[in-house]
Amino acid sequence: MTDDPQKQSNHELNGEGHVKPSSHTMEDEYANQGISHHTVHKLGKNQPEHFQKHHPQDVKENHTHHADHTGHEQMFRTRFWVSSLLSIPVLLFSSMIQRWFELSLPSFFGSEWIPFLFSTIVFIYGGIPFIKLAIPELRNHNPGMMTLISLAISVAFVYSVAAQLFNIGEVFFWELVTLIDIMLLGHWLEMRSIRQASGALSELAKLMPDTAELVIDENGNTQILPVDELKLGDVVLVRPGAAIPVDGEVIDGESSVNEAMITGESKPVDKAVGSKVIAGTLNGDGSLRIRVTATGEQTALAGIMRLIEQAQKSKSKTQVLADKAAGWLFYLALGVSVITAIAWTIAVGFNIEVLKRVVTVLVIACPHALGLAVPLVVAITTSIAAKNGILVRDRLALEAARNIDVVIFDKTGTLTEGKFGVVGISTDGWQEDSALALAAAIESDSEHLIARAIRNEAESRQIALPTVSQFSALKGRGVQAIYEGKHVYMGGPRLLEMLGISPSSSLTAFANGAGQKSQSVVYLIVEKQVVAAFAIADVIRSESKVVVNRLHEMGIEVAMLTGDSQLVAKSVAAELGIDRVFAEVLPEHKEQKVAELQSQGKRVAMVGDGVNDAPALTRADVGIAIGGGTDVAIESAGLILVKSNPLDVVKIIQLSRSSYNKMVQNLWWAAGYNIVALPLAAGILAPWNIFLSPAIGALLMSLSTIIVAINAQFLRRTALIP
Question: Among this protein's residues, is 410 annotated catalytic?
């Protein structure tokens, strides 16, 4: 796969990897195809017509594949019900069933052929699909579950037909049809579980509108056309309540936009001229005119879908182990069946009972539950992560997160907001809000970062600003204006020097305290009297203290990596309770700090912005990138925080631990069942007259599959509480 997200997007979004069968087991095939292809089909058929037009080959191949794999749920469901109905006459006219339940059905000409006739129909209609699906396994020299099922039902059918035609022994047509019915039921339930588990990706696909309303002239006339015909720089009109069709920038209008489906932010986000909007989000009550900056596969939503699909296709170490175990089980089943046949033939001679033992061994050993154990948990985990604003690009990263010893946070933009803000105010004889209002009014025409911070603080407090006039800049010192006929000033220490004044002792103490934290201090001066001081700094996120405490509670060490001075770094670390500080580190040296911790035997997670921190993210055992809501094509990280909330790091570790525990539980359910059932199927308890028939074996195997599926669903109850 190319490292370029632009180059890889076409293939990944449109389902490359889903067209040609590989050498995976069929359970793996189901897990991958059933999950991701559902969405590919949605994109190829039900989604915008332009997708089919520009990618006809992908759509054609995807639909071919849809017929082969994605339709499994409906196919197994239909065949289960039809086969079950056709099995009723077989059961009613079976001599063994009649003896068990003391039934006595009237005999008529040809009645002895009813089980043979209906069993043949059930075998052809309900059993042949298993045989067809086994062919790719054999062709790829990778026999698995389908091969085992096909072998079991074929042996049963051929022997029963021979017994019926040549009277060589007792037939067991009822066991055959019951086996097929139960297999169909198990596969139907499996397909349905996988489809339901992968709903998050298909729901994302539904967000994209097919058409857009293009503004075609200066008079505001519009034309509806397919989204794929839009070009960069086009202007589209988005009416109230409509889905936004493209990524873009608002050039006219005001509205609130629901971005919950992308960022997880439940509160609608206000949009005005200059605001960025994301394709697939829902417009509120206002009309917006949007200049197109990205369409189709280049949109943030498409990028999110690619990442989810990559995560669903990537294999975890646990899944690789499960796949290997399924392969081992096939050969084990063959070996046990051969030993069973030889041992029973020596003991009692070759007869119907020997064949029953062999068939039962083959049925019991089908790696059905084992193949479902991990993929279903992975699908549910990916869905839970997406709903919590965590995009899993590489499942190996999510799995490794449970073992993390140290989490390194990049300071700027991760633990802090990455922008200047007012972090403290002290006044001398003035109300705090009054001083802030006047300061913001004086700075209203300035574009300086400090001026912007003061204005933002006043705006956040919803303070009305007084009127000032005659604004002018004092180069290198600050600004001045006239307020109610008085000269007012805003500036730093050099302004105080120019005016020849000093602040009061309380303001001086405030400024000294801020200086020790490497915070900038500016003063409000009214007629040469210092009335207020404002501390300005990179604002620490409100969540940062909480995430550090929670990680400590989980037994995880917290480190901070920054290019800032030792003074600034230690101040932030002391406020948050961080264990280790790496300060004055250049971007190209951040990777070395990660390696330094790893050399001490630590398993390290790195949380950064994915750009300056890319080498460190790659070096870390788990790379977690700040996505900022839209920047999701970050190749250097395995996990991406859509909401840029450091608290989601805690959720990642919680989810990693919960999903791993669930995988282990499922593997034990599946493997433990086989460990117990195989000896019983081989007849180890025969001396005590305890046997497992093929039908009971099939029932137990299907029950184990259902237990695994239900157990995986319990993962949805996991409460991710940061």
Answer: yes
